[in-house]
Amino acid sequence: MSYNIETRSISEFVTDSKIKLPRFQRKSTWNAKQNFELAISIFQEYPVGVVIINDEGHTSWLLDGRQRRSALKDLRANPDLVYDWARKYIKFKNNQDDVEVKQLFWEKIDAYLQQEEDDEETREDIAEDIVAEPIPEINDDEDINKLRQREGLKTLLDIILMVHQKKNNEGKWVRIFNQINKYIERPPYAPKREGFKIIPEELRQFLLEYKNKVGNPNKDNFIQYMDDKGAIKEDKEQDLKKEVDKSWDDIEHIVKVIAKSEQIISDARIGVILLKNVTPLDAQNIFSRINSGGTQLKAEELLSAKPFWNEKVVIGDGKMLDLVNDLYTRLEVETPTDNCVVRWDYGATLISRIKDKHLIFEDYLEKKSSQEIDMTQITLGFKLISSYFNKGMSAIVVNELERNKEIKWGQSIDELVDDINTICEILLKTEFFKYLRSWNKSLYKLLGAAPTLEYITILIYDWHEKGSPRVSSAEYNTFIRDAKLLFDRLIFEYCIGSWKGSGDSKMANHIKNWHERVAPMDEKSWKALIEEACEGTYNGQPLDIKHLTPLLCYQYALQKKNPESPLEETSEVDHIIPQAKLEKNSMVPAKYKDALFNLQLLPKADNIQKKDKTLAQVDDSFLRQSISKYTGISESDFTKYSDASNINEMKKERLAILLKVFGECRITELSN
Known about the structure:
Blueprint: E1 2-9, H1 10-15, E2 19-20, H2 32-43, E3 50-56, E4 59-64, H3 66-77, H4 79-91, H5 98-113, H6 120-127, H7 146-163, H8 172-180, H9 200-214, H10 219-230, H11 237-267, E5 269-276, H12 280-290, H13 299-303, E6 312-313, H14 320-330, E7 341-342, H15 343-349, H16 376-390, H17 395-399, H18 411-427, H19 431-438, H20 443-447, H21 449-465, H22 474-495, H23 504-512, H24 514-517, H25 523-533, E8 537-538, E9 541-542, H26 545-559, E10 571-575, H27 579-582, E11 599-603, H28 604-610, H29 621-631, H30 647-671
Parallel strand pairs: 2-4, 3-5
Antiparallel strand pairs: 1-5, 3-4, 6-7, 8-9, 10-11
Helix pairs in contact: 2-4, 2-7, 4-7, 7-11, 8-11, 9-11, 14-15, 15-16, 16-21, 19-26, 21-22, 21-23, 22-26, 25-30
């Protein structure tokens, strides 16, 4: 990797066709305030920040600076947008006169720049006729020219006043040219494709080209230029001359304001960090150090700015294009208009193609109403592809997918999706996994990314090794048993904290030695875990609810217990003896509050209904029966166990139940 630090003109930066936006881009988040303050910086001759570009062969990918580039493009091309920013920022009304707008403009600008206000007479002296004069040159050793700064801001004000009193989405300058258009046959800035409506960007470009061609605008060369470009309607030449003569002062002013603003923007510079063939990991680290206040870029995001990942793929699955378009729409970024799918899209949509009914992953298609970009689905998709094909999920290993020549995009990914969906279908035909899924807590939600990706990756390897069985057979049954054994191991490891911290290297090592992962766990280890978890500790360290929740789901699957509620809703951990009864209770060890014996899962609605009630205070018969079912505590003992002084007795009863579940019941289930 190499890099250069350079400056470029704003005009070059916003018009360079070699600069490409990654296929995936963060949604536009800049508001009118940010856009207009950027405009102030340009016209005040202040620096406008640094962007990061990764140069890959004949293409430059904009890694950081999309928002700034978009704002600069609009600033240069569309005075109407600049006016809209200004009106929101300065807070003036459409119907206010120019004098009021000027006053509000300078008050707001001076407050923003925290400088002393010049009196109105001084401002007018500085501003007088500046649109007709070129910006003076500055020697290298000269300080920033204060006069030129003020002239620049006056040009920004002139843009605003040129558009002011915008009505029906038309600025004042547009209305002037609408009058002229009555006598023009084919005005190039009001194309037929737009119903002959004036397009501000095209009108600006037309006038800029006119100024560049004629040098000094006058009525005669303006009429001639209009005729050359559009053709005057038959018998309307005199009418056109009268209209131009009537409006010439305004037209000439508009032309000079546009030319002056173009000169200022062309002279403005932006800093560019130009990287050469950078890896996503390096780009991620560079971005985080330069833009510490921004949202951290993920490695998978940066992959979308790599040529390899933008290679088009022949679609095998007819629904892929719909999924791709839905993904971009849901993430509120620009939907690709080329109606094609690239390699990056296969990773980004992979999880949404998995039909596991929440057994393994969350259903991200259910989150369409979210206003925030959720990168979890995208990240998991790339890590899953990397886990399966490259036996690892770290950013470095994901990046190495480029070098894996065995992957046939997207045939290989389509086959991977089919395999995962078949495996999930097999598991969900099994009684144990049906009960597990009924609690609506996916494996990813319970264990996190690394254990989950290890689980599905090893299952694919195991299934393939057994000949990919799809119907009942010895191999089919052995595969299901292996799936239970691996689940059993992962739950145990997660509960004792083995997966704390980064699991990338741990998971990669497990995948490389995956046969060892489907071997049965030691029964004594499980017995020790349950006994210590009922004390609220393991190896002398406290256990928290987060690490015990998977154990509760596993318990109910082993007991063949599903939620009583007919609705599929999420479940929550409930304290059998409420926390309030145990906190600051000298008779009860503090570690008992979140100990395994005092925890149960309840469907969310039931948990809300119970809240901080003791068992005796629960008067809903349905809920009482549910609690008794999930805890194994008889309703006749509810009053006794509502008294915290009986907690040791409850602990003894619950421990006996749990030891049986994770002893006898567990052994029976894993041997089937």
